[in-house]
Design a protein that fits this description.
Blueprint: H1 8-18, H2 23-39, H3 50-62, H4 68-85, H5 92-98, H6 112-120, H7 124-136, H8 140-144, E1 151-152, E2 157-160, E3 169-172, H9 178-197, H10 209-212, E4 227-233, E5 240-244, H11 247-261, H12 269-282, H13 288-295
């Protein structure tokens, strides 16, 4: 039987997973590579190169008028394709020539009063997530990935595992949020017991841990702090299990709260991070003690 190479998109996804890129990156890269191929009427990328990539990115900018960030996202996907999958790098001259220049906008920052008004119009898990982001400076993705074992109530710390740059870092736990987090943990325990009674597959655990410790995903320590209320299918492994809350839930809740609070600013999860950093700097220092001071500004209850 003739040995055939796996299909291109299978090779792309396999390489992305081998390099431990996020699922969001996998979806984005796959989408842009498919659009590139369809733009050239299903020609195989190995039969194309720098010239076709340049024309495609020019089409995105001139004809479709995409933003510089979107154009560069497409470029990153194609650079990955040619370097990591086809082993035929595009070359620095081509990459530099088509890389779009960003317009540096000033970050949106909320005043402490606006943060209070916004949070007063939020409730449930999205509110607690917003308070944690503002109280610690965590990224939204990092909050979604928090697990039971990452909250150290004894030492009053949140341990961020494999954050940006694949690094771990400890952050002080906002004291004003401690009581609500304890309530959330109690809810997670009950949900976990329910999953065990119903023999639901364990949650996703990183890298090869699931192979080394098959039951790790079924332990309480690895459960998500902000779990989804629904069981769903893992898009990579097709295993039916419980995932963390979907990111769009938080975004939709913030949008509604902004309208109710009548704040005329474009507010995203990142705005809470910018506001956290700005208010910290405005207090005159960047010390650990000032984090504790900032945490007292907004009670979680």
């Amino acid at each position: 039987m003739e040995n055939r190479k796996p299909k291109l998109m299978w090779q792309v996804r396999s390489k992305i997973r081998a390099l431990h890129y996020s699922y969001q990156t996998e979806r984005s890269y796959a989408q842009w590579i498919k659009r590139f191929i369809h733009y050239y009427n299903l020609r195989h990328p190995k039969d194309m190169g720098a010239e076709e990539v340049t024309l495609f990115l020019t089409h995105l900018a001139v004809d479709l008028k995409v933003s510089p960030a979107t154009q560069n996202q497409a470029l990153c996907a194609l650079v990955f394709l040619y370097k990591q999958v086809l082993h035929s790098p595009l070359g620095e001259n081509t990459v530099n020539a088509v890389r779009a220049k960003y317009h540096k906008n000033l970050p949106v920052v909320l005043s402490t009063n606006e943060v209070k008004r916004l949070l007063s119009n939020m409730y449930g898990l999205p509110k607690l997530m917003a308070q944690i982001i503002y109280g610690t400076g965590l990224r939204k993705s990092e909050v979604h990935r928090l697990r039971v074992k990452d909250i150290d109530f004894e030492r009053n710390q949140i341990i961020v595992k494999r954050g940006k740059g694949n690094k771990d870092r400890p952050l002080p736990l906002p004291q004003s949020c401690k009581e609500e987090l304890l309530k959330q943990l109690a809810f997670v325990k009950q949900l976990h017991l329910k999953d065990r009674r119903e023999n639901v597959n364990g949650v996703e655990v990183p890298y090869a841990l699931e192979r080394k410790e098959p039951n790790a995903g079924k332990s309480l320590a690895w459960q998500w702090i902000f779990p989804s209320l629904r069981i769903s299918t893992d898009p990579r492994t097709f295993i039916v299990r419980r995932h963390h809350a979907h990111p769009t839930v938080f975004a939709k809740h913030v949008k509604k709260a902004i309208e109710k609070a009548e704040i005329n600013k474009k507010v995203t999860a990142h705005v809470f991070r910018h506001s956290f950093a700005t208010h910290l700097l405005e207090s005159g220092s960047d010390s650990f003690l000032l984090l504790q001071k900032l945490h007292t500004l907004l009670p979680c209850r």
